[in-house]
Amino acid sequence: MSARELETNGFQLNSFRLNGFRLNGFRLNGFRLNGGDGSGDFIDLESFELAQGGTVADAWLAGSELRVTTTGGSTLAGTQLVGTVLHFGLVEGAPKKRKVRIAGVTPPGPASEVWLYDLKIKDSAGPWQPLCVDALGQPTQAILVGEVWDPSTGNRVAAASALVTLACRNAAVGKCAEWGYYPWLMPEYHQACTRMVRADYCGDGNSHTVDGVLIHVLDEIGVEDAEPDASYAIEAEWTAEGAACLDLAHTRMGVSELPCGLPACGEPFASGGLIQTGVPSI
Protein backbone atom coordinates (compact mmCIF):
# COMPACT_ATOMS: atom_id res chain seq x y z
CA MET A 1 0.00 0.00 0.00
CA SER A 2 1.37 3.39 -0.94
CA ALA A 3 1.72 6.56 1.09
CA ARG A 4 -0.77 8.16 -1.27
CA GLU A 5 -3.35 5.51 -0.48
CA LEU A 6 -2.90 6.03 3.25
CA GLU A 7 -3.23 9.79 2.89
CA THR A 8 -6.19 9.68 0.55
CA ASN A 9 -8.17 7.09 2.51
CA GLY A 10 -7.63 8.70 5.88
CA PHE A 11 -8.55 6.62 8.92
CA GLN A 12 -9.76 3.57 7.04
CA LEU A 13 -7.99 1.46 4.46
CA ASN A 14 -9.31 -2.06 3.81
CA SER A 15 -10.66 -2.14 7.38
CA PHE A 16 -7.29 -1.26 8.88
CA ARG A 17 -7.25 1.76 11.16
CA LEU A 18 -4.55 4.26 11.99
CA ASN A 19 -3.84 4.40 15.70
CA GLY A 20 -1.86 6.78 17.87
CA PHE A 21 -0.67 7.28 21.42
CA ARG A 22 -2.43 10.48 22.51
CA LEU A 23 -5.44 10.09 24.80
CA ASN A 24 -7.48 13.25 24.46
CA GLY A 25 -7.58 17.01 24.09
CA PHE A 26 -8.60 19.61 26.65
CA ARG A 27 -10.79 19.05 29.70
CA LEU A 28 -13.46 21.61 30.58
CA ASN A 29 -15.33 21.87 33.85
CA GLY A 30 -18.65 21.31 32.13
CA PHE A 31 -20.69 24.00 30.41
CA ARG A 32 -21.89 25.47 33.69
CA LEU A 33 -21.43 29.19 34.02
CA ASN A 34 -20.99 29.34 37.80
CA GLY A 35 -17.37 28.30 38.18
CA GLY A 36 -15.64 25.05 38.99
CA ASP A 37 -16.24 22.18 41.38
CA GLY A 38 -13.32 23.13 43.61
CA SER A 39 -11.01 20.37 42.39
CA GLY A 40 -8.65 22.66 40.46
CA ASP A 41 -8.05 19.87 37.95
CA PHE A 42 -10.15 21.25 35.11
CA ILE A 43 -10.56 24.42 33.09
CA ASP A 44 -13.46 26.53 34.37
CA LEU A 45 -15.78 27.88 31.71
CA GLU A 46 -16.78 31.42 32.63
CA SER A 47 -19.08 32.66 29.87
CA PHE A 48 -20.33 32.32 26.30
CA GLU A 49 -20.15 35.18 23.81
CA LEU A 50 -22.72 34.47 21.12
CA ALA A 51 -22.17 35.79 17.60
CA GLN A 52 -25.88 36.74 17.56
CA GLY A 53 -25.61 38.60 20.85
CA GLY A 54 -27.64 37.79 23.94
CA THR A 55 -26.78 35.97 27.14
CA VAL A 56 -26.54 32.20 27.59
CA ALA A 57 -28.63 30.81 30.44
CA ASP A 58 -27.74 27.12 30.01
CA ALA A 59 -25.58 24.89 27.83
CA TRP A 60 -25.32 21.13 27.40
CA LEU A 61 -24.31 18.33 25.05
CA ALA A 62 -26.84 16.22 23.17
CA GLY A 63 -24.54 13.39 22.16
CA SER A 64 -21.67 15.42 20.70
CA GLU A 65 -23.75 18.43 19.66
CA LEU A 66 -23.44 21.62 21.70
CA ARG A 67 -26.76 23.30 22.50
CA VAL A 68 -27.49 26.48 24.44
CA THR A 69 -30.53 28.39 25.61
CA THR A 70 -30.49 32.14 26.03
CA THR A 71 -32.09 34.27 28.71
CA GLY A 72 -34.54 35.31 26.02
CA GLY A 73 -35.75 31.72 25.65
CA SER A 74 -34.10 30.88 22.31
CA THR A 75 -32.33 27.57 21.71
CA LEU A 76 -29.25 27.55 19.50
CA ALA A 77 -27.38 24.44 18.34
CA GLY A 78 -25.15 23.01 15.66
CA THR A 79 -24.11 25.44 12.95
CA GLN A 80 -26.03 28.26 14.67
CA LEU A 81 -23.15 28.45 17.14
CA VAL A 82 -20.47 29.27 14.56
CA GLY A 83 -18.71 32.40 15.77
CA THR A 84 -19.44 31.75 19.44
CA VAL A 85 -16.53 32.43 21.79
CA LEU A 86 -16.10 30.46 25.02
CA HIS A 87 -14.27 32.38 27.76
CA PHE A 88 -12.52 30.34 30.41
CA GLY A 89 -9.78 30.61 32.97
CA LEU A 90 -6.85 28.27 33.56
CA VAL A 91 -4.79 28.24 36.72
CA GLU A 92 -1.13 27.26 36.36
CA GLY A 93 0.47 28.96 39.32
CA ALA A 94 -1.19 32.24 38.32
CA PRO A 95 -4.54 32.92 36.63
CA LYS A 96 -4.47 32.99 32.83
CA LYS A 97 -7.40 33.78 30.59
CA ARG A 98 -8.12 31.77 27.46
CA LYS A 99 -10.70 31.95 24.71
CA VAL A 100 -11.96 29.22 22.38
CA ARG A 101 -13.87 30.23 19.25
CA ILE A 102 -16.14 27.95 17.25
CA ALA A 103 -14.86 28.73 13.75
CA GLY A 104 -16.88 26.04 12.00
CA VAL A 105 -19.26 23.15 12.62
CA THR A 106 -19.67 20.03 10.46
CA PRO A 107 -22.92 18.08 11.01
CA PRO A 108 -22.82 14.26 11.16
CA GLY A 109 -22.70 12.31 7.93
CA PRO A 110 -25.33 9.69 6.98
CA ALA A 111 -23.70 6.90 9.01
CA SER A 112 -22.48 8.95 11.97
CA GLU A 113 -23.74 10.73 15.08
CA VAL A 114 -20.58 12.80 15.53
CA TRP A 115 -20.51 16.59 15.20
CA LEU A 116 -17.11 18.03 14.28
CA TYR A 117 -16.03 21.43 15.61
CA ASP A 118 -13.33 23.63 14.12
CA LEU A 119 -12.00 25.29 17.28
CA LYS A 120 -9.50 28.13 17.63
CA ILE A 121 -7.77 29.13 20.87
CA LYS A 122 -5.98 32.29 22.00
CA ASP A 123 -4.58 34.10 25.01
CA SER A 124 -5.98 37.51 25.87
CA ALA A 125 -3.37 39.24 23.69
CA GLY A 126 -2.28 36.40 21.40
CA PRO A 127 -3.39 35.33 17.92
CA TRP A 128 -6.06 32.75 17.21
CA GLN A 129 -4.51 29.31 16.68
CA PRO A 130 -5.97 25.84 16.01
CA LEU A 131 -6.92 24.04 19.20
CA CYS A 132 -6.15 20.67 17.57
CA VAL A 133 -3.38 19.79 15.13
CA ASP A 134 -2.48 16.43 13.58
CA ALA A 135 0.87 14.66 13.54
CA LEU A 136 2.01 16.93 10.69
CA GLY A 137 1.02 20.09 12.53
CA GLN A 138 -2.02 20.69 10.33
CA PRO A 139 -5.29 21.91 11.87
CA THR A 140 -7.86 19.24 12.63
CA GLN A 141 -11.28 19.27 14.26
CA ALA A 142 -12.50 18.37 17.72
CA ILE A 143 -15.37 16.29 19.05
CA LEU A 144 -17.15 17.42 22.22
CA VAL A 145 -17.48 14.55 24.70
CA GLY A 146 -19.36 14.77 27.99
CA GLU A 147 -16.79 12.91 30.06
CA VAL A 148 -13.13 13.29 31.03
CA TRP A 149 -10.17 10.92 31.32
CA ASP A 150 -7.13 10.76 33.55
CA PRO A 151 -4.14 11.32 31.23
CA SER A 152 -1.88 9.23 33.49
CA THR A 153 -4.00 6.09 33.77
CA GLY A 154 -6.34 6.42 30.80
CA ASN A 155 -9.32 5.84 33.12
CA ARG A 156 -12.59 7.69 32.80
CA VAL A 157 -12.90 10.12 35.69
CA ALA A 158 -15.96 9.67 37.87
CA ALA A 159 -17.34 13.15 38.47
CA ALA A 160 -20.14 14.49 40.62
CA SER A 161 -20.98 17.09 37.99
CA ALA A 162 -20.88 17.35 34.21
CA LEU A 163 -17.43 17.60 32.65
CA VAL A 164 -16.48 17.98 28.99
CA THR A 165 -13.50 16.97 26.88
CA LEU A 166 -12.59 18.82 23.70
CA ALA A 167 -11.35 15.63 22.05
CA CYS A 168 -9.11 16.12 19.02
CA ARG A 169 -9.97 13.81 16.12
CA ASN A 170 -6.48 12.33 15.91
CA ALA A 171 -6.31 11.35 19.60
CA ALA A 172 -7.88 8.30 21.21
CA VAL A 173 -11.03 9.75 22.81
CA GLY A 174 -12.10 11.58 19.66
CA LYS A 175 -10.91 8.90 17.28
CA CYS A 176 -12.92 6.16 19.00
CA ALA A 177 -16.05 8.30 18.97
CA GLU A 178 -15.59 8.98 15.26
CA TRP A 179 -15.11 5.28 14.54
CA GLY A 180 -18.61 4.68 15.94
CA TYR A 181 -17.97 3.77 19.58
CA TYR A 182 -20.01 6.67 20.93
CA PRO A 183 -19.14 7.29 24.59
CA TRP A 184 -22.62 8.71 25.25
CA LEU A 185 -24.25 5.46 24.05
CA MET A 186 -21.68 2.69 24.59
CA PRO A 187 -19.19 3.86 27.24
CA GLU A 188 -17.60 0.44 27.84
CA TYR A 189 -16.89 -0.09 24.13
CA HIS A 190 -15.53 3.44 23.82
CA GLN A 191 -13.26 2.92 26.83
CA ALA A 192 -12.06 -0.41 25.40
CA CYS A 193 -11.34 1.41 22.14
CA THR A 194 -9.19 4.03 23.85
CA ARG A 195 -7.12 1.20 25.38
CA MET A 196 -6.93 -0.48 21.97
CA VAL A 197 -5.90 2.63 20.03
CA ARG A 198 -3.05 3.37 22.44
CA ALA A 199 -2.02 -0.29 22.80
CA ASP A 200 -2.53 0.11 26.54
CA TYR A 201 -2.30 -3.64 27.05
CA CYS A 202 -2.17 -3.59 30.85
CA GLY A 203 -4.79 -0.87 31.27
CA ASP A 204 -2.35 1.23 33.28
CA GLY A 205 -2.13 4.21 30.93
CA ASN A 206 1.13 3.15 29.29
CA SER A 207 1.03 3.26 25.50
CA HIS A 208 2.94 0.73 23.39
CA THR A 209 2.41 2.19 19.94
CA VAL A 210 3.27 5.11 17.71
CA ASP A 211 1.19 7.23 15.35
CA GLY A 212 0.46 5.80 11.94
CA VAL A 213 0.52 2.06 12.74
CA LEU A 214 -2.25 0.17 10.95
CA ILE A 215 -4.51 -2.18 12.90
CA HIS A 216 -7.49 -4.29 11.91
CA VAL A 217 -10.53 -3.66 14.15
CA LEU A 218 -13.46 -6.03 14.70
CA ASP A 219 -16.33 -6.36 17.18
CA GLU A 220 -19.52 -8.37 17.59
CA ILE A 221 -21.99 -5.46 17.62
CA GLY A 222 -21.60 -4.36 14.00
CA VAL A 223 -19.69 -1.11 14.49
CA GLU A 224 -16.60 -2.64 12.85
CA ASP A 225 -17.03 -5.59 10.50
CA ALA A 226 -14.37 -7.87 9.10
CA GLU A 227 -13.01 -6.97 5.67
CA PRO A 228 -13.02 -10.17 3.55
CA ASP A 229 -9.87 -9.19 1.67
CA ALA A 230 -7.87 -8.12 4.73
CA SER A 231 -5.00 -10.36 5.76
CA TYR A 232 -4.11 -10.00 9.42
CA ALA A 233 -2.96 -11.84 12.51
CA ILE A 234 -4.93 -11.42 15.74
CA GLU A 235 -3.07 -9.20 18.17
CA ALA A 236 -5.41 -8.82 21.16
CA GLU A 237 -8.95 -8.48 22.41
CA TRP A 238 -9.89 -5.48 24.52
CA THR A 239 -12.02 -4.50 27.49
CA ALA A 240 -12.38 -1.19 29.30
CA GLU A 241 -9.58 -2.33 31.63
CA GLY A 242 -7.08 -3.18 28.88
CA ALA A 243 -6.34 -6.32 26.89
CA ALA A 244 -8.23 -9.48 27.86
CA CYS A 245 -5.83 -11.62 25.85
CA LEU A 246 -2.72 -11.04 23.77
CA ASP A 247 -0.47 -12.70 21.22
CA LEU A 248 3.01 -11.39 22.06
CA ALA A 249 4.26 -12.46 18.63
CA HIS A 250 1.97 -9.94 16.94
CA THR A 251 2.06 -6.81 19.07
CA ARG A 252 2.36 -3.51 17.23
CA MET A 253 5.74 -2.59 18.68
CA GLY A 254 7.21 -6.05 19.10
CA VAL A 255 6.70 -6.06 22.88
CA SER A 256 8.41 -9.15 24.30
CA GLU A 257 7.04 -8.92 27.84
CA LEU A 258 4.63 -6.87 29.89
CA PRO A 259 4.24 -6.25 33.65
CA CYS A 260 0.75 -7.80 33.55
CA GLY A 261 0.24 -11.45 32.78
CA LEU A 262 -2.14 -11.81 29.85
CA PRO A 263 -3.41 -15.12 28.46
CA ALA A 264 -3.05 -15.99 24.80
CA CYS A 265 -6.11 -15.39 22.65
CA GLY A 266 -8.08 -18.49 21.67
CA GLU A 267 -11.38 -18.58 19.83
CA PRO A 268 -12.58 -15.10 18.78
CA PHE A 269 -14.09 -13.17 21.72
CA ALA A 270 -13.81 -16.20 24.02
CA SER A 271 -11.75 -14.15 26.49
CA GLY A 272 -14.49 -11.64 27.22
CA GLY A 273 -13.04 -8.91 25.03
CA LEU A 274 -15.34 -6.35 23.39
CA ILE A 275 -13.11 -5.41 20.46
CA GLN A 276 -10.50 -7.44 18.58
CA THR A 277 -7.37 -6.07 16.92
CA GLY A 278 -5.12 -7.60 14.31
CA VAL A 279 -1.91 -6.52 12.66
CA PRO A 280 -1.31 -6.81 8.90
CA SER A 281 0.11 -10.15 7.81
CA ILE A 282 3.29 -9.92 5.75
Radius of gyration computed on alpha carbons: 20 Å
How many domains comprise the coordinates? 2
Mean pLDDT: 81
**First and last CA, distance:** 12 Å
Principal-axis shape = elongated
Low-confidence stretches: 1-21, 32-39
H/I helix tally? 3
Helical fraction equals under 10%
**Major sheet details:** 6 strands, antiparallel
Multimeric status of the protein: single chain
Widest sheet, order of strands: 1-2-16-19-17-18
Pfam family, one: ADYC
InterPro entries: ADYC (IPR045426)
Protein name: ADYC domain-containing protein
Domain ADYC: 78-248
List its traits.
3 helices, 282 residues, mainly beta, elongated, 2 domains, six-stranded antiparallel sheet, five-stranded antiparallel sheet, 9% helix, ADYC domain-containing protein, disordered N terminus
Walk me through the structure.
The protein is mainly beta and 282 residues long. It contains three helices and 19 strands. The protein has helices at residues 3-9, 172-179, 187-197; strands spanning 12-13, 16-19, 26-28, 44-49, 56-62, 65-70, 75-77, 85-91, 95-106, 116-123, 129-130, 132-133, 139-140, 142-145, 164-168, 213-219, 232-239, 242-246, 275-280. It holds the Pfam family ADYC.
In short:
With 282 residues, the chain is mainly beta. It has helices at residues 3-9, 172-179, 187-197; strands at 12-13, 16-19, 26-28, 44-49, 56-62, 65-70, 75-77, 85-91, 95-106, 116-123, 129-130, 132-133, 139-140, 142-145, 164-168, 213-219, 232-239, 242-246, 275-280.
